[in-house]
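Hey,
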Amino acid sequence: TNFVLLEYGQPLHAFDYDRFGSKEVVVRKAAENETIVTLDEQERKLSTSHLVITNGKKAQAVAGVMGGAESEVREDTTAILLEAAYFDGQTVRKASRDLG
């Protein structure tokens, strides 16, 4: 996914399909003080200005910034969900800046 980002400037994200928790993919604004543990194992507190990729219930990634640890691809992953989307650059930069 990083090669696509470098080549085209658009992020892709791979989720472990079986750990994603649903067949539904919903993009929404985060709830105020909603949290997600990201791939770097840090708990991030979100605000309503951040977009999240969800399984219809729970945030699985911060849109365009970083995936969540809960649905990360691991050595034992057998099926992936590949997310490709276009997100507003200002929204992604703000979330990236806010979350460090």
